[in-house]
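Quick start: what a row looks like.
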Amino acid sequence: MTAATTAAASASAELVQSVDWAAIAPPVITAVVALVALVADLFVPPARRRLLGWTAIAGLVAALLALLPLRAGDRSTFCLTTDPATCGYTADHFTLAVQFLVLGGALLTALLSLTETERQRDGSAGLPAGEFWFLLLSSTAGAALLPASRDLATLVVALEVASLPAFALVGLRRGDRLSGEAALKFFLSSVTATAVTLLGVSFVYAATGTLHLTGIAEALPRVPGQLDTLATAGVALTLVGFAFKTAAVPFHFWVPDTYAGAPLPVAAYLSVVGKAVGFTGLILVAVIAFPAYADVWGPALAVLAALTMTAGNAAALRQSAARALSAVRLLAWSSVAQAGYLLVPVAAAAYTGAAAVGATIAYALMYAVVNLGAFAVVALVARTHPAKRIADFRGLYATRPAAALALAFFLLCLAGLPPGIIGLFAKVTVFSAAVDAGLGWLAAIMAVNVVLGLFYYLRWTAVLFRSPARTEAPVPETAPVAVPTGTATATTQVREPVPLPLAAALALTTVAAVALSGYPQLVLGFAARTLF
């Protein structure tokens, strides 16, 4: 072999990146199972389509188990051959915490969705099984990839892999006008966010010459004067794009209609996993890539947090109990308010460093458990009251005491009241992050908003224990149920068997919420280690 050939071979070898398959296993397993579900749908007879759902659930469990070998939080892959310390994928504690939230949230969503892919009680066809499981798992794979992304190219790709299937999931109920309208609003807002993000990323790359987050952090303070305006515009546009994804005010207008029009499990998925995607991306670009501009994005995010929690709580207060879909809309506006609380530690990180984002992770884990539990109870009641009104929950304790107590506990956790200790501790952690950062005005606004939230959470809780308005004959499992219109009076709950997957989702969320309230250090201590 000649010297020239040897040199060429050596240069080629230096360009080959090694792959740590264990580090990338969680998103890879999820993506592979998504393809398996799509292909299997061609061969599985309609009567056995539930197997696709159980396959998806098994895949998500396998992806969660794949996190165990990574618990040390010291794995990286897709590193530059010329600089092994600069990697495109990092499985640190922050990544593992968010991946656990994403995969766990998707698993609970899958349990809620099993009955949605079968023929419904009113005789209508359920959601198409093959397409649903493929889209859900594909979106989950993108959401699991995003927290590990350490360059803007991978970050944007992961963001779109998580978002694009979600558009289709929202509009998957064919022939439903509300579902189509919800999907269109979600699509237009997300496309706008993506366009703004891509424009910002291109400006940042033009100014710094790199896409890796750590490289951007090193290059931004040294940007030449003639490129300073370009870099500033890129930072601002990138952050605005992720603010769309977090549903921060004034980029929140799509949330209530999207949640109300989407299938109920999809709304639950968006409220937890979709929110995790937006906040993860925002944390990565703000804290890792743009610390040089902390004096700009810190105050901006603090103002956004104040506006978001206030607007969300104000809109939730206005929800009428007798209005159709009021239960889902209240959870949607509550989700906007909770996004404001989640933004507080991110804003605080501009003043106190990356350690503050641990409060966001702790709060997000608490919120994921109790919010999915609340959606599980709404799904249970919606089996006999498809209008999904808050008034439909009147007298729930009389017929389903376990479900009523569980929902009351979830609402108290969201409100931050005992016995929902985990909700109280999570809010105190966020409050402390604001105070430690010197954002006393933001802490005061948060305290006022927590009091506002008590009103509508406790109002819904009180409905559960009121005497039923009137008695209604039980409805057989196979009887059609018409969606009521107008503002009819509330009725008592109808007792019928609870599907096993729905019961499992409700049991898992209840046990997790009670365990975290009894031992909140499980979340708070775990989140404290989510440093970059």
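That is the whole record. The beta strands are 75-79, 87-91. The mean pLDDT is 85.
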